[in-house]
Amino acid sequence: MDGTRFDSWTRRRFGLATGGALASILGMASVADVDAKKKNKKKKCRKLGQTCDINDKNKKCCNEKQDCAQVQGLGSSNFCCKSLNEGCSVNTDCCGNRKCTSGKCVNP
To answer: What SS3 class is residue 74?
Structure first.
């Protein structure tokens, strides 16, 4: 093999190796971005009036002042609702058979 053929063969092999290395680095960077996005994702919680489950972390109520209980007028499932003496705007904000009176959940 003479010098020019060896040089072109070496350049070609070196170019392929460099291209492969760059492609693998870029591929690893995109996987790292996906992992970072998954870590930053907030767990979803339930807002006032949405169905909830006490035993499921992703279906707990967002606010600590809210309970997961049955609400009169919304059906037989558990919903996120306001506790006794918490602020409310309508009767369905309050847990159980409590009523919204003067902006607070009170027992009837």
So the answer is: coil
Q: 74 CB contacts (<8 Å, ≥6 apart)?
A: 49, 92
Helix (H, G, I), strand (E, B) or coil at 97: coil
Calpha distance 67→49 (Å, rounded): 11
| Amino acid letter, 8 | S
Q: Going by C-beta distance under 8 Å and a sequence separation of 6 or more, which residues neighbour residue 73?
A: 91, 92
Q: What's this model's pTM, rounded to 2 decimal places? A: 0.53
CA distance 55 to 42: 18
The count of residues in the chain is: 108
Other beta carbons within 10 angstroms of residue 38's beta carbon come to: 8
Q: Which residues contact 60 (CB under 8 A, 6 or more apart)?
A: 45, 46, 52, 53, 54, 68
- pLDDT tens-digit series, residues 17-64: 676 777 777 776 666 566 666 666 666 788 888 888 877 777 888 877
